[in-house]
Amino acid sequence: QVQLVESGGGSVQAGGSLRLSCVASGYTVTTGCMDWSRQAPGKEREGVGTIDSDGATRYAEFVKGRFTTSKDNANDILYLQMNNLEPEDTAIYYCAAWSPQGTSELGYWGQGTQVTVSS
Q1: Selection from 118, 109, 100 nearest residue 38 by Cα
Q2: Choosing a second label site near 47 at 20 to 30 A (CA), which of 2, 35, 57, 82?
Q3: Cβ contacts of residue 10 below 8 Å, gap of 6+?
């Protein structure tokens, strides 16, 4: 059974930093892609960043240069380092893991962690 548990959210002032963690159990972080997404109140969920099984990363334009995602392969943990946070970054942040299943993929999501950035 795959379980993803996010932590590290909190309240910070604009310009501050947070590091989110996503601990995976029942899933090896080198299996497939893992990604971060977020959902702000009243808005649709949007992708933040992706890290492939080989470690290649991609980011949404609005976080490029500020956010970095990485993995601890030994401990099956996904990270999101968020620097220079802006009030617009306030949202619930979710991690997801994808497991290749032949020609398709099976996805798993965590419960989310709240990030609040004040001006």
Answers
A1: 109
A2: 2
A3: 18, 114, 115, 116
